[in-house]
């Protein structure tokens, strides 16, 4: 049984790598068509023709594009992301801290959001069409409909300004005690949880309800199993693939889509870092971050696929 | 009764009585808390700065691309943090005079072409080395090198030779310049060991704080430098911290929540709301910064002075000042100088006059629309201001077509490239600097394409003139020329609007830049 699965996994990973390579070309091409150039952006309003020429020369902006692409790809493959053009700092070093911060925040948001969403989904199905279901669905819809910045500002207003329970700005730093760090991320993690909760919860509810229509669930019900047992034992395992899919999608969002939340809470993560460097036309950084984001998306999708294959015997033994 | 309170308030200031006990005592005596508090703060001020604590600022204008290299400093966060760890050769004091810092004395030859800086004894760098004339000379050399990327390069190019001998640095200029000491107060010119030639971003200078944390775009922190040469005047807090908060709402929330003690750039539209928050003080004051619309004098249709005059007359300055700046600013008069400059003279205020505008517009022979490019990055509220301009001009029969440009790339693609756009100037410390930066024919930043040999001659003559009365007259004439013939429409000067929290003391308004010319963290203290 293991060898066809291993083969499938290997195939998926190989595909992922190919996809990543294709994306690297796209990212590189995309960064080439940004208006203006990095030298101009670094110097901004204070640019003089001499200083521009000096900086361009120094940054190697005069080489043709394909030379720079292969140079960059070679660096990435050997683990060298290059140095940021605007600040001269090593990109890998500065990204490491930022990526860790983003993952830390995403991790805690996920720890709260994923089980909560699934449990709420299960409860909603159990009491489907009753007031509990309507309440859960209604609240979830509401929190999804509010834009992130609104949720963020409401949290800041009540928890940071009015009651002063949690800090409204979440500057975390190396060597920060764990307790303080948790306190600092309390509000952004809550905001993120609220943002992704509804999607996952509603997908869980929909997927399980879908399965509930099947004949074997009816059989189970006719056997006299309790409603929760039917859902837990018969419906949920068969609905797991779509649920994992939506969970992975939201996990990816927690990592690559948190720019707004990071800006509101002044959280030093990847999103803020990317935005700063896009405005500065700092191409190597934009490329590196883009590639990391792409890798996160691709690997989470691969994991979702593989999980779905393992969960579904029909996919495990293709005819 | 009030004698007793005063006595007690001095006790609090001296640290012999806690603030809470004092307020309790005041309440027992039937004194309302606000009065007791004001009594307390005046006692604290009289008692002088309080040492200790951590002073935190939440500031807009920091990016993860910032560096500690003073040559590359451009935005507000490196500027304000630079004043904490860096020491300058000379500085402008809040009343507009020159204040010698590392230079103990600055003297010039009669023709204002040779300048001698005497270097102060016993000033120490953070690395323990004493500041020498060689370090100062090397600093100036680095910033005046043609290859440098320094933001001060524009002014520094006027220096022909730099020589250090003994305790003195001797500068000779290509052209006479009576304003040289003002140029040396440029915030880029932080004195570094060997001028920062070895390691420009090491963050070592002789300022009141030693750099401890440097996470660009996130936060910067400093610890009081024990051997600072002026410990009684600056460096009162044990530690200072700058937290980068680019989002305006997050910034005000951080001040309200007490996470930071001061913030910069409060938006005019929320000032009145913030004022109501207990403990928060708005610190607004005039400065040389101005919001403008610039026309290229050499590009049709703006190459016609009647058309330029028509547009200048078709803008309703007063309306713009009340609606866009909510009164936190002052009227502009189409020349880039206001009373924050030392040699300023009043010129009759230009007013909104649709009839006259109509007359000049007709005379210009231009008909059809005028294309104005605008974007919110040009200045806060620029799009609103442009729309107001469009409406007031329409009443004069002038059709302005607005083109909203993306903020991203505005400074590269639109400003100084397109013939008519909204823009912003931070101002400079002297008239000469302002005119040389943007109105000399040869200036790189001549964003109005104002190319007039007669004007250039006036700039150079005024620069070399040491008689103040004559100089004032020269600057007056130059202002009139820019106002009546230039391509600048300057509806308003903006104010700096900072805000401080409950415990901050020692604030002094400074007209040169926001946050007490960047010194707020270095000069303020936290009440005990």
TrEMBL record, chain A:
Protein topology in the membrane: Multi-pass membrane protein
Kindly give the PROSITE patterns that the UniProt entry links to this protein: ABC_TM1
Descriptive protein name: ABC transporter permease
Q: Which domain of life is it from?
A: Bacteria
Annotated ABC transmembrane type-1 domain residues = 99-304
Localization of this protein:
Cell membrane
SUPFAM superfamilies, per database record: MetI-like
GO cellular component terms attached to this protein's record:
plasma membrane
Write out the entry's keywords from A to Z.
Cell membrane, Membrane, Transmembrane, Transmembrane helix, Transport
Gene Ontology biological process terms in this record:
transmembrane transport
CDD domains membership: TM_PBP2
Record family assignment: Belongs to the binding-protein-dependent transport system permease family.
The protein's matches in InterPro entries, at most eight in alphabetical order, are given as: BPD_transp_1_N (IPR045621), MetI-like (IPR000515), MetI-like_sf (IPR035906)
Transmembrane intervals: 12-34, 103-127, 139-161, 181-200, 243-268, 288-311
Automatic annotation (TrEMBL), chain B:
The family database entries (Pfam families) matched by this protein are listed as: SBP_bac_5 (PF00496)
Main localization (coarse): periplasm
Gene Ontology molecular functions = peptide transmembrane transporter activity
Residue span(s) of domain Solute-binding protein family: 98-446
The UniProt entry, under InterPro entries, shows:
Peptide/Ni-bd (IPR030678), SBP_5 (IPR039424), SBP_5_dom (IPR000914), TAT_signal (IPR006311), TAT_signal_bac_arc (IPR019546)
* An example Gene Ontology biological process: peptide transport
> NCBIfam families from the entry?
TAT_signal_seq
Gene3D superfamilies, per this entry? Dipeptide-binding Protein, Domain 3, Periplasmic binding protein-like II
Give the subcellular location: Periplasm
Return the CDD domains for the record. Answer: PBP2_NikA_DppA_OppA_like_17
| Protein name (database record) | Twin-arginine translocation signal domain-containing protein
**What residue intervals traverse the membrane?**
none
Family membership, please give it: Belongs to the bacterial solute-binding protein 5 family.
A cellular component annotation (GO) from this entry:
outer membrane-bounded periplasmic space
Q: Please give the PROSITE patterns that the UniProt record associates with this protein.
A: TAT
Domain of life according to the entry? Bacteria
């Amino acid at each position: 049984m293991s060898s066809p699965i291993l083969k499938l996994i290997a195939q998926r990973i190989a595909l992922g790598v190919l996809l990543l390579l294709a994306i690297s070309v796209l990212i590189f091409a995309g960064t080439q068509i940004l208006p203006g150039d990095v030298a101009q952006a670094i110097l901004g309003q204070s640019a003089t023709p001499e200083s521009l020429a000096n900086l361009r020369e120094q940054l190697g902006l005069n080489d043709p594009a394909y030379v720079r692409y292969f140079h960059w790809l070679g660096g990435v493959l050997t683990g060298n992301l290059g140095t940021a053009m605007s600040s001269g700092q090593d990109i890998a070093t500065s990204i490491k801290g930022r990526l860790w911060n983003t993952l830390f925040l995403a991790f805690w948001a996920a720890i709260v959001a994923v089980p909560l969403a699934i449990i709420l989904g299960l409860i909603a199905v159990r009491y489907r069409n009753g007031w509990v279901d309507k309440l859960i669905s209604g609240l979830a819809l509401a929190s999804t409909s509010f834009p992130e910045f609104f949720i963020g500002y409401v949290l800041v207003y009540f928890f940071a300004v009015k009651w002063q329970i949690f800090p409204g700005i979440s500057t975390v730093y190396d060597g920060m005690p764990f307790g303080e760090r948790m306190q600092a991320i309390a509000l952004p993690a809550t905001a993120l949880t609220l943002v992704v909760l509804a999607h996952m919860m509603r997908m869980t509810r929909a997927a399980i309800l879908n399965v509930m229509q099947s004949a074997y669930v009816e059989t189970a019900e006719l056997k006299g199993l309790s409603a929760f047992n039917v859902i837990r034992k018969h419906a949920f395992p068969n609905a797991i693939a779509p649920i994992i899919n939506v969970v992975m999608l939201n996990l990816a969002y927690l990592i690559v889509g948190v720019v707004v939340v990071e800006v509101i809470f002044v959280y030093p993560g990847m999103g803020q870092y990317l935005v700063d460097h896009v405005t500065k036309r700092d191409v190597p950084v934009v490329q590196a971050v883009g590639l990391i984001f792409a890798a996160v998306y691709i690997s989470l999708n691969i994991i979702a696929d593989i999980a779905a294959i393992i969960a579904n015997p029909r996919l495990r033994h293709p005819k | 009764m009030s004698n007793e309170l005063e006595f007690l308030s001095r006790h609090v200031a001296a640290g012999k009585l806690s603030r809470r006990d004092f307020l309790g005592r005041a309440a027992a005596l039937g004194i309302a808390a606000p009065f007791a508090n004001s009594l307390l703060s005046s006692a604290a001020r009289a008692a002088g700065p309080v040492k200790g604590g951590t002073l935190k600022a939440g500031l807009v204008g920091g990016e993860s691309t910032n560096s500690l290299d003073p040559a590359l400093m451009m935005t507000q966060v490196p500027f304000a943090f630079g004043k904490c760890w860096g020491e300058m050769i000379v500085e402008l004091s809040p009343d507009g005079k020159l204040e010698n810092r590392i230079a103990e004395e600055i003297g010039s030859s009669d023709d204002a072409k040779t300048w001698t800086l005497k270097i102060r004894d016993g000033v120490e760098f953070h690395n323990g080395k004493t500041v020498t004339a060689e370090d100062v000379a090397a600093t100036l050399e680095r910033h005046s090198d043609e290859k440098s990327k320094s933001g001060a390069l524009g002014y520094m190019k006027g220096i022909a030779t730099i020589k250090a001998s003994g305790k003195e640095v001797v500068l000779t200029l290509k052209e006479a310049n009576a304003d040289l000491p003002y140029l040396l107060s440029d915030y880029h010119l932080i004195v570094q060991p060997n001028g920062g030639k070895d390691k420009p971003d090491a963050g070592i200078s002789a300022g009141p704080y030693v750099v401890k944390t440097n996470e660009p775009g996130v936060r910067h922190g400093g610890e009081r430098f024990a051997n600072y040469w002026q410990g009684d005047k600056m460096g009162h807090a044990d530690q200072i911290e700058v937290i980068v908060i680019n989002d305006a709402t997050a910034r005000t929330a951080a001040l309200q929540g007490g996470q930071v003690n001061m913030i910069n750039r409060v938006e005019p539209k929320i000032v009145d709301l913030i004022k109501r928050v207990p403990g928060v003080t708005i610190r607004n004051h005039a400065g040389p910064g101005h919001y403008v619309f610039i026309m290229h004098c050499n590009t049709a249709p703006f190459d016609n002075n009647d058309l330029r005059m028509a547009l200048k007359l078709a803008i309703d300055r007063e309306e713009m000042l009340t609606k866009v700046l909510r009164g936190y600013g002052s009227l502009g008069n189409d020349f880039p100088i206001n009373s924050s400059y030392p040699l300023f003279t009043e010129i009759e205020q230009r007013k909104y006059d649709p009839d006259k505008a109509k007359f000049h517009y007709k005379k210009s022979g231009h008909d059809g629309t005028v294309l104005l490019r605008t974007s919110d990055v040009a200045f806060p509220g620029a799009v609103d201001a442009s729309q107001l301009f469009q409406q007031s001009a329409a009443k004069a029969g002038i059709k302005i077509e607005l083109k909203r440009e993306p903020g991203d790339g505005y400074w590269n693609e639109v400003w100084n490239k397109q013939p008519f756009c909204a823009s912003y100037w931070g101002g400079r410390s002297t008239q000469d600097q302002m005119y040389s930066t943007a109105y000399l024919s040869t200036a790189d930043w001549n964003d109005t394409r104002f190319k007039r040999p007669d004007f250039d001659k006036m700039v150079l003559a005024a620069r070399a003139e040491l008689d103040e009365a004559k100089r004032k007259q020269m600057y007056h004439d130059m202002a009139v020329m820019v106002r009546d013939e230039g391509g600048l429409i300057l509806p308003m000067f903006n104010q700096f609007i900072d805000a401080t929290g409950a415990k901050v003391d020692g604030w002094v308004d400074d007209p040169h830049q926001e946050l007490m010319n960047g010194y707020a963290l270095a000069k303020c203290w936290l009440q005990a």
